[in-house]
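Sat 14:20. Reprocessing the chain from the morning session after the first attempt stalled halfway. Input below, unchanged.
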Amino acid sequence: MTDHGIDEGIDEPVDEAIGEAMMRSLLEKRCPDLAGLELHLSVRAWDDQLWQLGDELAVRLPRTPRAPDLLRQGHRRPVG
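Finished this time. Tokens:
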């Protein structure tokens, strides 16, 4: 699996209105090898949204200014 810089910051401002066109553009810019996969919005939560990418991947994006910190905490928290 290619490392697509999950911990790298996103230069675009956090915005609730991330639609399919913007997601496709982000994929083409940051992960061109994945940009051709099927894409659809799966979950829109209070602080983030989850996009299904192909059959096996998902993209989780922040919707609020506090969301990036919450995502980082979620990645570091042990499961179980």
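The first strand starts at residue 39 and ends at 44.
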